[in-house]
């Protein structure tokens, strides 16, 4: 089978196309003939910095859609040929992947495999952030960093569907604002001036919920525009700055709640809970009309081009690698 392999950390050229034996499932596992693989920022960090990579060589790719190929013992009710989406530890950029059955989800009715590839990581992340960690309530005001990215595109729609009274997004450039405004956001601000504009938009009060994927200085500026009794949730460090730290002086005066969320951590520590959250999140697609537009699609041979586009910071929505066909 064809597979993208990282043999040494580096730039997009570190993604090499190899021929490898197709995996076979063991107990509690299935193999999947991949139709599409999602491209995530975590893949970029794995390739360039070794993020969550145990050892080299390493196969990137955290989410796929496709057809069940083989079913191992004690792997549930999956059947060969069944359409599924899966959340992986890696290996998604390949013709065939090995997956824990606990992290494999039947594709919801009415959803095609192309759309299904956008669901396994992004949708549960956005859902978990808003509903499980931030505990979104009707009437809350919400601020989302990276509003034009995968999680941001979905988070705006979910916040709106969950009864938020106002949803604000932050983007790195005005070129991305139009995309974000189609995804449930009332107003979209650029990174350089968002804090002042959020306070102006809320009459100086700030927002009830803020979701931050950038970290560093952006995290600190976001914290400053969260209202009393508000919730600030970190789910990444895309800016590459120093890890955030808070103490009593940061949270006590405004009764601020600060939390974090990692879909990768949840998948590793509690896949059963991931399945529950994913099931709830997937229902928002079939019943609530939530969608994550695919903005670009690449062949497996052109996986490096997908990484180049992500790193350019100009992409919006979701990028996919087309494996089958």
From TrEMBL:
Alphabetized UniProt keyword annotations: NADP, Oxidoreductase
Pfam families membership: ADH_N, ADH_zinc_N
Residue span, Enoyl reductase (ER) domain: 10-321
Gene3D superfamilies linked to this entry: Medium-chain alcohol dehydrogenases, catalytic domain (3.90.180.10), NAD(P)-binding Rossmann-like Domain (3.40.50.720)
Protein name according to UniProt: NADPH2:quinone reductase
Organism annotation: Actinacidiphila yanglinensis
Matches recorded under PROSITE patterns: QOR_ZETA_CRYSTAL (PS01162)
The keyword DNA damage appears for this protein: no
């Amino acid at each position: 089978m064809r597979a993208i392999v990282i043999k040494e950390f580096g730039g997009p050229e570190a993604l090499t196309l190899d021929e490898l034996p197709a995996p076979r499932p063991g107990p509690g596992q299935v193999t999947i003939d991949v139709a599409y693989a999602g491209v995530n920022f975590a893949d970029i960090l794995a390739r360039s910095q070794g993020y969550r990579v145990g050892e080299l060589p390493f196969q990137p790719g955290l989410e796929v859609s496709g057809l069940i190929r083989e079913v191992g013992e004690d792997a549930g009710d999956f059947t060969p040929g069944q359409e599924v989406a899966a959340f992986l530890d890696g290996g998604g950029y390949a013709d065939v992947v090995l997956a824990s059955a606990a992290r494999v989800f039947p594709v919801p009715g009415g959803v095609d495999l192309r759309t299904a590839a956008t669901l396994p990581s992004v949708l549960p992340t956005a859902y978990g952030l808003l509903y499980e960690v931030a505990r979104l309530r009707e009437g809350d005001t919400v601020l989302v960093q990276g509003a034009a990215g995968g999680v941001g595109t979905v988070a705006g729609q979910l916040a709106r569907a969950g009864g938020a009274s106002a949803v604000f997004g932050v983007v790195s450039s005005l070129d991305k604002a139009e995309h974000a405004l189609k995804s449930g956001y009332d107003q979209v601000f650029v990174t350089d001036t968002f804090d002042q504009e959020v306070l102006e938009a809320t009459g100086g009060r700030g927002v009830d919920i803020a979701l931050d994927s950038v970290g560093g200085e952006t995290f600190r500026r976001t914290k400053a525009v969260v209202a009393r009794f508000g919730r600030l949730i970190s789910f990444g460090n895309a800016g590459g700055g120093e890890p955030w730290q808070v103490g009593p002086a940061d949270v006590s005066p405004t009764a601020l709640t600060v939390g974090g969320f990692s879909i990768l951590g949840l998948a590793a520590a509690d896949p059963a809970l991931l399945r529950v959250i994913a099931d709830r999140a997937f229902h928002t697609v079939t019943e609530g009309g939530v969608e994550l537009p695919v903005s670009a699609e690449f062949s497996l041979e052109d996986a490096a081009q997908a990484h180049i586009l992500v790193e350019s910071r100009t992409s919006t929505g979701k990028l996919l690698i087309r494996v089958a066909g």
